[in-house]
């Protein structure tokens, strides 16, 4: 997947006032202040309010009247009301007049104007308490996401002249040797110098199963050394490490908004001004129709209406639900590049997958060599090995492992890779072709092999315009591939396998797994046409591949899922969803996370609209007081938040 349609998230610089959707994060507050200090203004206000209500209704203190009563409730109002009024003023300065701060400000100031002091304080008090809970919930969701991935140690032990020195991780240079003790986290990507070492890779893959590495293999930042002291040669700068890129990706994931989230933002911008004008109408229009019109009574109804109408429950609980979904994915080694991809996966109808490296291990082994008797098998294999050294394809690796070291004395001229066919070069003035049998057909090489009956992958070889013979190469199916297909079927998702490998091999693997449709011998443009056929039926498509090839198919699909994100930087850069280990069973898990997230978001939308609609009608009819209004606003918001954070506890 070398490129993808609008998949790379851009950093979103969120100002405190972005339309109606003000920033409920307040993470700076939760970081610098204790929970008690966050609630302190509400505690002071609550105490004064309770005393005031007791003096008003039970003790019936005569001295608490007139301006003294007003001052008492003003003092109770200021700790919770002043910050909100200040936010309302800032919103207006930034051009966002109809913010929820403005609604709360009008409602509570209006309550004071008509002498309903306790209710004015109560509305602002419960609103402020709700804001603190919302801030805590959002911060927790963000912290959960960050803590899952921000596993980079700040300091590492570097060997300088054989002596260990503790150095800041960002100051370590490429080529430096890091000493990693048992239980320590690796701070930078590198190459293992020790003969062998076992690592816990859960920070990157979500899997805690130890992964044993051998000398020369890549090891990545965030991995934890499990046994003896190991040495690692740094190959990547701190800021360019795989973990740094993953962390940045997840932090920026919220920049890609889901359609539901975008709709709620737009809705709030239109809805809030309408509500304000309706409240004005509730205050004055009855004057034209009601005989005994009382301004104070109708103003009170309008103020109740304003409090109920605040869309806070929607504009916070919906993004919070998507935060939770992204966090749940990260915890399981699945990276979503935006909440919009959660929505797409929730409704995906087709999963189209590559074969090699996706449903099979991608580790090929040469099974047999069938060359003509008249040719020197060893010499031809040396030539083939030299040419395949120019490719990074798994087939090339299999041939290299079978033949051995590359003979660098062999001079290759005009070596080139022909996409979908194989490799071509000139050696000693003679043309060498190594690839599939379509390559033989392309260059009019005659052969008498019945390839259809051979299940294994075939690599045909021609030298000096003559067919030399072929190698058979086999790959093994991944252990959880069968479980993956079964789960996709249970979710009602259709499966299709597309591969450039020969049809008999593709159909054989598809038959073992129970994949509904399978097509082999495909060139990149053939894969595009197959996906177009599916999309022509107005069906959504997720394409799953190794993340580096098949760019046209990925661009065409609704969501691109990359397998084995640890293997390729290009994968992390270009995929819509990255599965950080090689487990295809994470595909149905990603779909399930999308479905659960969408379900919770819609539960919150229905809950908020239903309760608010009922109480709005009651408020306009004079049957609801400020207390019901507080429940309809803050109560619904808190219920929605509790529902939204629930996704972080679901086991997928």
UniProtKB/TrEMBL annotation:
Residues 1-29 are annotated as: Disordered. Keywords: ATP-binding, Cell membrane, Membrane, Metal-binding, Nucleotide-binding, Translocase, Transmembrane, Transmembrane helix. Residues 20-29 have a biased composition (Basic and acidic residues). Its EC number is 7.2.2.12. It catalyses: Zn(2+)(in) + ATP + H2O = Zn(2+)(out) + ADP + phosphate + H(+). Residues 152-251 form the P-type ATPase A domain. It is an enzyme of class 7 (translocase). The chain crosses the membrane at residues 35-55, 67-85, 270-290, 302-323, 605-623, 629-647. It is found in: Cell membrane; Membrane. Residues 8-19 have a biased composition (Basic residues). The keyword Transmembrane applies. The keyword Transmembrane applies. Belongs to the cation transport ATPase (P-type) (TC 3.A.3) family. Type IB subfamily. This is P-type Zn(2+) transporter. It comes from Chryseobacterium indicum. The lineage of its organism: Bacteria, Pseudomonadati, Bacteroidota, Flavobacteriia, Flavobacteriales. The gene is cadA.
